[in-house]
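Appendix C. Worked example: Porin
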Amino acid sequence: MKKVLFATTALVLSAGVAAAEVSTGGTARMGVAYNGNDGVKDWNFSSRIRVKFTLSGQTDGGLEFGASLRADQANTANSTGAAGAAYISGAFGKVSMGDTVGASEALFGDLPEVGYTDLDGAGFGAAAMHLGQNRPNLGANEIPYLTGDDGGTQFDGYNSGPNVLYTGTFGAYSIAASMSDGKDTGREGQKSPNGSVDQEAAIAAAYTFGNYTVGAGYEFISGANGMEDKSQAELVGTAAFGNTSVKAYYAKGGKANTLDQGYGLGVTSVFGATTVLGYVQHIENSFDGPMSQDGTTYGIGAAYDLGGGASVVGGVADSDIDGTGTQADLGMKFSF
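Step 2, the predicted output written as structure tokens:
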């Protein structure tokens, strides 16, 4: 992937202080997408542009520091929004603060992303959004983590940021820990109508041996103002076999977590310039009703690398969740 440096700025704070660098890059996509949700079935053009600013520097003592800022969802002239985080790192690991994911997601990530738009409409939460319920959409390929990512997936627009995340790798062992500062704001900065969250935290660890990695995570949210405590544990394993990689997970919710259990499998294979990927996952919730979103999601897709940061990407995703239907897309992705 070719990286283009648009600007490098020397920030001389005092004699002997290393210079900091500022660079810009970004991504773009264009194509067509099919939305098969009930009442919405249609083909549509779909495009997006994101610009990322990356800042980095180093202290006299060898500590690395930096920050990143992304102009997000810039698909129309009126789009606004940004996400970013600052960090400092050294032999002790890396500490980031801002728009960070939770500890478990930092170590394990999600299942493979299918399609050039990620085909979120086939995911858990899509039916609730279609019914007008104020619930964040959990993408079809996304592992249902409880914390991080602006409050995880358990709340109606709840935003816990800024969060702090620690990650460290020491030989074959990797560890992570994350925590919020207990904000109680909801969608667009409004106070959450469902009460406030006191604090969320998570820890995770992984062990790598050869081409295999096994890990576990534990997440917790302490409730306040009428909200109940929630917890969740995850087990994750990955393996690589030549040009094929496999990821499997199992998640179990506890206390007042709406997730009862979830499990899934993702596979990615590379054949020269072509990458083929797919996933399947099943979610069971601890209550009934239109917000329960029990069911199975699955998807398959492919990407062909044209070189120079351009690729042709397409995919199909579906689920057996009420209110959702087949999703598909085909287009081009660009990385600058």
